[in-house]
From TrEMBL:
Keyword RNA-binding among record annotations: yes
GO molecular function: RNA binding
GO cellular component: cytoplasm
Species the sequence originates in: Phocoena sinus
One Pfam family per UniProt: 5-FTHF_cyc-lig
Keywords, ordered alphabetically: RNA-binding
Protein name as catalogued: Methenyltetrahydrofolate synthase domain-containing protein
Domain RRM residue range list: 293-366
InterPro entries: FTHF_cligase (IPR002698), FTHF_cligase-like_sf (IPR024185), NagB/RpiA_transferase-like (IPR037171), Nucleotide-bd_a/b_plait_sf (IPR012677), RBD_domain_sf (IPR035979), RRM_dom (IPR000504)
Length: 384
């Protein structure tokens, strides 16, 4: 199957999905549209995996959590290698290490390789774990024999790889494998590729093993100009990497970050006293609107002073344009100029301590009428 001339990535995705559904090549879950397709023969395609020299030499292998790679995950565990699986949508971290119970039989290993098994037998792998990934397996919607790859359009595989580069887990020499149906191997115009797109070195299908010989460079790290504030809000691990790279002096300007006028500086304005503000429950602030550019800092020491907090925030490079002090509630609201600046502050305040207390740092959210018990309609609260 060849794509039509003048196509986009989405055109190719739709063509593959339609073809697989029309010819009943797809397996559960269906329909395959907007998914990494699970296909009939996926287990057979994965049987080529242990025969690759790259597999034999690898000790730690990252395999995506999609259904067509279930047998690949089993084969990694059955070979007594370390299996890493990305967390779904990167919401709670980057990797989970799958640890089967002692003496696990093949049947138990097969359960460990399922989506439920990944949940039951996994432990998070932190950014400081210094993990080295020897081999990467990604899902694809379409792939070319040259190694060009198209995913389902959400960019998670590309971002996962870029994050692995940023944490030093992979290098340009780390092989990348994809497992697909034969019909998913198509010509892809190179003009569709962007610098952040991940390429593959091996393609496994039910009938073939394709060595692509791809020489196009893989992503060299996270392209922050393509990352939105919304993505930062959903992925704590991304915020941590953003903070690290900013501290290393890299350009980490986000896609929707509004540039400040030349010479503009964030300065703390006059702090409102408790008398000017009704005493509400901890972590809430009265008002008609709280923008997403407001950050709540809680669990401060009982004897904390405003001046002490201001100095600590400035030292972290997280000085807000305005601060609302809630001393009796042991907290404060930090008001920034825009959501991107707020998320940047949250990233910089990871692990923030004042005195002996580790502060709670969260984006403030609006509390509606049906919200927390005891709260007033329209009051903002720290995000849970």
């Amino acid at each position: 199957m060849e794509p039509r001339a003048g196509v986009s990535k989405q055109d190719i995705r739709e063509q593959i999905w339609d073809y697989m559904e029309a010819r009943n090549l797809a397996d559960f879950p269906r329909p395959v549209h907007h998914r990494i397709p699970n296909f009939k023969g996926a287990s057979r395609a994965a049987e080529h995996f242990p025969r690759l020299q790259a597999f034999k030499m690898a000790r730690t292998i990252k395999v995506n959590p999609d259904a067509p790679q279930k047998n690949a995950r089993f084969l990694v565990l059955n070979s007594k290698k370390t299996l890493l699986v990305p967390t779904p949508r990167l919401r709670t971290g980057l990797f989970n290490k799958i640890t089967p119970p002692p003496g696990a039989t093949k049947d138990v290993l097969r359960k460990c390789a399922t989506s439920q098994g990944v949940k039951n037998y996994s432990t998070p792998v932190g950014l400081d774990s210094r993990v080295l990934v020897d081999l990467v397996v990604v899902g694809s919607v379409a792939v070319s024999e040259k190694g060009w790859r198209i995913g389902k359009g959400e960019g998670y595989a590309d971002l996962e790889y870029a994050m692995m580069v940023s944490m030093g887990a992979v290098s340009q020499g780390t092989p990348v494998v994809t497992i697909v149906h034969d019909c998913q191997v198509v010509d892809i115009p190179e003009t569709l590729l962007e610098d952040h797109d991940l390429t593959v070195d091996y393609i496994l299908t039910p009938t073939r093993v394709i060595t692509t010989g791809c020489e196009r460079p893989k992503p060299t790290g996270i392209v922050w100009s393509k990352i939105s504030c919304e993505m930062m809000g959903k992925m704590p691990v991304l915020r941590s990497l953003h903070c690290r790279e900013e501290q290393a002096g890299k350009d980490v300007t986000l896609r929707d970050k509004r540039q400040s006028p030349p010479g503009a500086r964030a300065a703390l304005s006059t702090v409102r006293s408790p008398r000017e503000l009704p005493l509400l429950e901890s972590g809430s602030l009265q008002g008609d609107d709280v923008p997403s550019s407001t950050v709540y800092v809680g669990n401060l020491p009982r004897d904390a002073r405003v001046s002490e907090l201001k100095r600590a925030l400035s030292a972290r490079g997280a000085a807000p344009s305005r601060l609302t002090w809630q001393g009796p509630q042991r907290g404060a609201f930090l008001h920034y100029r825009d959501p991107a600046e707020a998320w940047q502050a949250i990233s910089r305040l990871q692990g923030f301590c004042l005195g002996a207390n580790t502060a709670r740092v969260a984006l403030a959210r609006h509390q509606g009428a049906s919200g927390l018990a005891g709260g007033r309609a329209g009051e903002p609260h720290p995000d849970p």
